[in-house]
Amino acid sequence: MPQIASFKLFLPTKYSSHSLFRLNSFPPLSLFSKPKTKTLSKPFSPFTTTTTVFSYSPRRQQRNTPPLRSRDNSTLREVKKRELGKEKEPMKEANEAAGFNKRRAEGRDKNDKPKNLQLKNRKLNPVNTCCYVQVLGTGLDTQDTSPSVLLFFDRQRFIFNAGEGLQRFCTEHKIKLSKIDHIFLSRVCSETAGGLPGLLLTLAGMGDEGMSVNVCGPSDLQYLVDAMRSFIPKAAVVHTRSFGPSLISDGASISESETFAEPIVLIDDEVVKISAILLRPSCCSSSNSQDSDTENEAVLKPGDISVIYVCELPEINGKFDPEKAKALGLKPGPKLRDLQLGKSVMSDFQNITVHPSDVMGPTIPGPIVLLVDCPTLSHLRDLISLQSLNSYYDGVKIVNCVVHLSPSSVTMTAEYDTWMRRFGGAQHIMAGHQKKNMEIPILKSSARMAARLNYLCPNFFPSRGFWDHQHVINGDPDIMASSVVSVPNPSESVAAENLLKFHLRPYSHFGLDKSTIPELLTSAKVIDELLLEIPDIVDAVSEVSHLWNKIGDAKELILPAEQNIIMMEEPWMDENASVPDKNLGKQGSDAALKEIPPSVSMDDLNHESSFPSCLENITREDMEIVLLGTGSSQPSKYRNVTSILINLFSKGGLLLDCGEGTLGQLKRRFGVTGADDAVKGLKFIWISHIHADHHTGLARILALRCQLLKGTVHDPIIVVGPRQLKRFLDAYQRLEDLNMQFLDCGHTTDAKWEGFESQSFQRSAKEEVNKDDGVKEIAQNLETSLFAKGSRMESYWKRPGNPGETTGVFEIQQKLKKVLGEAGLGALISVPVVHCPQSFGVVLEAASRLNNEGKTIPGWKLVYSGDTRPCQELKDACQGSTVLIHEATFEDTMVDEAIARNHSTTMEAIEVGEGAYRIILTHFSQRYPKIPVFDETHMHKTCIGFDMMSVNLADLPVLPKVLPHLKLLFKNEMIVEESDDVLDS
C-alpha cells in the first residue's frame, strides 16, 4: 500500500512516513459538492457537516516505470545505464556494510515537501449512457468484512463501504481505483471501513500529483479520521463529510424528535441524488411506558448509527415526436432541441407557447436503488417503523433494486421478509453473509496459487485456497441454520455473487446481469491446468513427499551438539547406510563422514548448520509459523501485506505485525470457526513499526476478539508496538471497544527487561520488609543486589526509569511476563532496527524443557526482523536462533533502492541470519508478483515465504530442500507489474 505520498495513504513506501498531517479548514460546499449540489436549506442542530482536509506531503516523486519483462532488468535506471554502456558505480565498503538512509530512519525524508492534492473535477454527463450497481465481493467468501457496492456512471464512481481487502479485490478484477469520486460508509467501524486507510494511501500515490476522494458517513466518521491522523503522515487530502447526531466523547443524549425522521441529502445534481436515512438500535429508543420516570431521550454511542442510502436517478424524458412539433407550427431548428431539453418555446407559425409535454412522449421515472445496512435485530425494529420510507412503499416512488448488506441473522427473520415485500416488485440482492457466497473464493489468483502450492507440498501449504461445501457448513452454526431454515423471501430475491450487476441504464439493458460473474473455478481444475503446464510437477510432488517419508531416518543422523560433529538431517542415506553411534567422539565423527554416499558433496555438508538441540524430541504441537501476508507496501493479487501468526496450539498464539486483511487470511487458512478460535486464543500482538502495511488490520482483530469474548471472563489483550501506535489505538477505542492494553516496544528491549527485573526485586523486597519476620532476610538480599553500596553503576538505558516514565508500565510488563509464561515462552525482546523512527525486530524464546533423559535443553528461538536495513543488533540477536524471519524486499541488484528505503536485499537478509539454523524470507516488493529473484547457491538453509505457508518446527530440517521444487512451480514467471494501480513499493 503506498506510502503516504500523494494519496498513498498506507504503504511502506507508500504506506510510510511518520510526521502527522496538518488539519486545515475547508468550505464544505466547495470540497464536497458539485456545481449544482443542493444542501440543507437550514442548519440542522443535531446534525453536523464537517470537512476535514489532511494536506499531504510526498515522501518521494513517483516514477512511471513501465512493466519490466526480464529478471535481468530490475529498474528503469539500470536499463538506461546499460544502454549508455555505463557500469554501476561500486559502493563504498562502509556503505555496503551498513548503508542506510539516515533521513528516512529519522523521519526526515528529503522529498518531504507539501503536495496540494485537489479533488477531481469531472465534467458531468447528464445523459449517462451507462449506469449500474455492482457487488464488489469483498468479504463475501470469508465473512470478515461488509461487502462493498459500486454505483457506476460514465464519468463518476461511488463506492459504498470499504472493508479490508477492497483494494486487493479491485486489483484482482481490474476495477480502477483512480476513478472513485466518493466513498460512503453505512457504518463507521472496522467491518465497513477497515480498508479505507490503505485505499486512501494508494490513491494518494497515483500519478505525479496523487488523487483525492470524498469520504462520507455518520458522525462517528470523525473518530476514524482522528485515529488515522496518528499514523498517516501529513496525510493525503482526505475530504470528509459527516452527518447525523453530533456525539460527544462517550455518546450523546438525543431528544426523541424528528432527528432521524427525514432523509439527509448528500448529493443532488444532474446525474444522481443520494440521500441518507439513519437507523438506530431499538435499545436507544425512548420508552413509551406511562410509568417510566425517565425523560423522553435516547443515548447513542459511536458505532450505533447505521445508514440506508437512497440513490435516485433523474427521470428519462419521453421520445420526441417531430410530427406533433410540425403540427404546432415549429420548423426544424434550435427550438426543437430546446423542447427536448425541457424548455418551452414559441411556435414559429402560430401564436402559441409549445411546452415539452406537447411534443414529447411520457417520461420514464428515474430508477431508484436502496442500500440497506441493518446490522442487528435491535436496528430492525427501527427499520420497520421508519416513516421516511413510506413514499417508497406506496408507489409514489418505485424502488427498482434493493441491495441488502444486512447479515443473514437479520434477513432470515420473518419480520425482515415482511418488510422486504413492501417494495412490491423490486429486485432484492442479498449481499450479506450468505452461505452460498462462501463456496467461491473472491481472490481467485491467490486461491489458484494456494491450490498449486498445496498440491506440491501440502505439509507447508495445508490450505487449498478453495473451501468445500462441508467446510462451509461446519464453519458457522448460523450459516448452517440459514441453510436449513426456509424463510419465504420475495421471488425477486437473489443471493449476491461476485461482480453481479444490476443495470439501470440504458433502459434496454435494465435488470440483473450475471455475465460478469467469474466462472466457477475448482481446485481440481487448477491442478489439471498445472499438470498440463508443468508435467514435471508430478515427479516433484513425489520427491517432496519423499522428504517427509524420510524425516524419521534424518533424525537418526542427529548427534549430540556438544560433540561438535557435523549434523546431517537430510534423507540422503539409503536404508542400508550405517548410522553413526551417538557415543562416538571426534574419531567417530570422521568415520561417520566416510559413510556418506558419494552423491553428497562436502559443499553440501559445509552448508549445513548444526542441528539445534532445541528440536530434540520436538512434537507437531509445539509451534507453527503461519505466514498470513508476505508482500510489502500494498496488497496485491498474490501477496497480502505483512502478518505472521505464531501458532502455539493448545497454548494459544500471537501475531507479529497485523497488516490489512489479516482476519480474512486467518479465515482462509483455518476456516470461519478456526479463525475465531485463533483470535480468541491470542496471547498478545506485537507490531514492528507504524507503517500502515504492518498494523491496519489490528483494529479489526481487536474488535472481533472483544465481540467473541463478550460475556466471558477475560483479560484485555496486550499490544506491544511503537509508541505512535498507542495514539491510533486510543483514538480508535472511542469508536469501537478494543479491550486492550498497550506496551511500548521500547519497554521490551533487553535493557528495559533488566530494569524490570531490578524493579521487581525492589518491590518484592519492600513487601518482605513489611513482614515482621522478613527484615533480616531482605537486608541480606540488598547487600548483594545492584543497589547495594559499592555495586557497579547501571547504564542509563538499564535503569527502571523515572516514575513519570514508568507509570503503569511496570504492571503491564508484569502481566506480559505472566502471559509469556502461560504461552510457554521464556522471553520477548524487542530489538531496535534501522528503518524509520521507532522500528523494531523481535526475539521470542520458548522456555527450556526436559528431554526424555531428564536433561534440560533450551527452547526454540525465533527472530523476526520487521522492516530494516541489515544491522548489527539484529545480527547479534540471530546468534543461536532456530528460525529467522527476515524481510527481503529487493533483489540483490537493487542495493541502491534498498538503502534509499531502508530495506534489505535477499543476500543481505541471508547474511544477517548466518547464526540462525533456518531462514524464511518475506516482505517482498510487489514488483515480484509470485516469486522473487534469488541466487539459489546461497539458499542452503533458506526458504522463500508465501502467503498461507505454515512451517511447523518439526519440519524445519526439510525446509530448504523444498525451495528448488517451489522454483519449478514458477519457472515461467517474469517480473511484470500486475496492473496500473499497483505501484512500485
UniProtKB/TrEMBL annotation:
<dbReference type="Pfam" id="PF23023">
    <property type="entry name" value="Anti-Pycsar_Apyc1"/>
</dbReference>
<feature type="compositionally biased region" description="Basic and acidic residues">
    <location>
        <begin position="103"/>
        <end position="115"/>
    </location>
</feature>
<protein>
    <recommendedName>
        <fullName>ribonuclease Z</fullName>
        <ecNumber>3.1.26.11</ecNumber>
    </recommendedName>
</protein>
<dbReference type="InterPro" id="IPR027794">
    <property type="entry name" value="tRNase_Z_dom"/>
</dbReference>
<keyword id="KW-0819">tRNA processing</keyword>
<dbReference type="GO" id="GO:0005739">
    <property type="term" value="C:mitochondrion"/>
</dbReference>
<keyword id="KW-0378">Hydrolase</keyword>
<keyword id="KW-0460">Magnesium</keyword>
<feature type="region of interest" description="Disordered">
    <location>
        <begin position="51"/>
        <end position="120"/>
    </location>
</feature>
<dbReference type="Pfam" id="PF13691">
    <property type="entry name" value="Lactamase_B_4"/>
</dbReference>
<dbReference type="InterPro" id="IPR047151">
    <property type="entry name" value="RNZ2-like"/>
</dbReference>
<keyword id="KW-0862">Zinc</keyword>
<feature type="domain" description="tRNase Z endonuclease">
    <location>
        <begin position="141"/>
        <end position="195"/>
    </location>
</feature>
<dbReference type="GO" id="GO:0042781">
    <property type="term" value="F:3'-tRNA processing endoribonuclease activity"/>
</dbReference>
<keyword id="KW-0255">Endonuclease</keyword>
<feature type="compositionally biased region" description="Basic and acidic residues">
    <location>
        <begin position="69"/>
        <end position="95"/>
    </location>
</feature>
<keyword id="KW-0809">Transit peptide</keyword>
<dbReference type="InterPro" id="IPR036866">
    <property type="entry name" value="RibonucZ/Hydroxyglut_hydro"/>
</dbReference>
<dbReference type="GO" id="GO:1990180">
    <property type="term" value="P:mitochondrial tRNA 3'-end processing"/>
</dbReference>
<keyword id="KW-0496">Mitochondrion</keyword>
<comment type="similarity">
    <text>Belongs to the RNase Z family.</text>
</comment>
<comment type="subunit">
    <text>Homodimer.</text>
</comment>
<dbReference type="GO" id="GO:0046872">
    <property type="term" value="F:metal ion binding"/>
</dbReference>
<keyword id="KW-0106">Calcium</keyword>
<keyword id="KW-0464">Manganese</keyword>
<keyword id="KW-0540">Nuclease</keyword>
<keyword id="KW-0479">Metal-binding</keyword>
